[in-house]
Amino acid sequence: MSFDVSKVRYISLIRLEGGESLLSIPYAELTVDPDLIAGFVTAVIIFAKTPIRTIRKAAYDILIEVGRTTLVLLVVDPVPDEAPYRAKLLRILDQVEEEHGKKLENFEGDVRRFREFAINILKEFPYSISDIDMVPVKKQKGVTIPYRVGKVDSMLERVESFINGKRTVSEIFDLIGISEEDVTALISVLNKYGWINFKKRLAESDILTKSDCPAVSVEKLKAQYGMPLDDLLKKFEQPAQIKDVLDSLPIDRNACWFIVNKLVEMGCLETVTSG
């Protein structure tokens, strides 16, 4: 069994007794307000006491699982097999009841304590599945992550500390010391909210060409590393394979390779895609 994360649109946890929304995570835009969907499902399940597990609409399905204290619903594009999605919903339901069942039985109205539970949902339904051979790169500013509190915040900080623009997702998996499911979820959060993007790791077989970048950036590199950058950049005035350039310059190969990567990061060199 497998699931397609691109089909997921919205997940909500709802307290069964009172119908309060504990935590909602939107994945994609809906033509209908997802809060209205959650309210409708809550009314049907709680007040009508109807044992419905699936509500089918024209553009989406609503999958529902009900526990002792909590209802969890998933809005998803129509899928050929609900089983893998339901298995994940049931794991989420078991976890929230185990971690928060007592609090929900004696609910005092404060839903903020449930924000940290977002990581449990995102482990089952990450926003996206990253190519493990790609290199995540930090961006200067993204959008505020609404559940970046407590445990989620500390886990995000840990993942961010391993993102240096050089390690692939696979290498982060190997080094970080937390589960691949956690890392996948957290990287998907950083990507969703615009705190990282991805780049392909350069290979000597890649073809680069010179592109416009601020002259001050090149001068800064010259001052830092004292290398003949003008000679290097001249080699890429026409598209050229990195290996050929490295072979042609009387410069330490490792040092030259380092500078090539820096120039790509700065936008002074760009990859030429075939076709």
Fill in the keyword field for this structure.
Arc Repressor Mutant, subunit A; three-stranded antiparallel β-sheet; Beta-Lactamase; elongated; five-stranded antiparallel β-sheet; 10 strands; alpha+beta; 275 residues; single chain
Q: What's the arrangement of secondary structure elements?
A:
Layout: E1 8-15, E2 21-26, H1 34-47, E3 54-56, E4 61-66, E5 70-76, H2 83-105, H3 118-124, E6 134-138, H4 150-162, H5 169-176, H6 180-192, E7 196-200, E8 207-210, H7 215-225, H8 229-235, E9 240-241, H9 242-248, H10 253-266, E10 269-271
Antiparallel strand pairs: 1-2, 1-5, 3-4, 4-5, 6-7, 8-9, 8-10
How is this structure best described in words?
The protein has 275 residues and is α+β, with helices and mostly antiparallel strands. It has three domains: 5-110, Beta-Lactamase; 134-200, Arc Repressor Mutant, subunit A, CATH 1.10.10; 207-271. Helix content is 43%, strand content 18%. Strand 4 and strand 5 (70-76) form a beta hairpin. It is elongated and about 80 Å long.
Structural class: alpha+beta
Name the poorly predicted regions. none
State the CATH superfamily name of the largest domain.
Answer: Dynein light chain 2a, cytoplasmic
What is the strand arrangement across the widest sheet? 2-1-5-4-3
For this structure, the CATH topology of the largest domain is Beta-Lactamase
Cα separation of the termini: 36 Å
Beta-strand portion reads: 15-25%
Q: Counting H and I runs of at least 4 residues, what is the number of helices?
A: 10
Order of helices and strands: EEHEEEHHEHHHEEHHEHHE
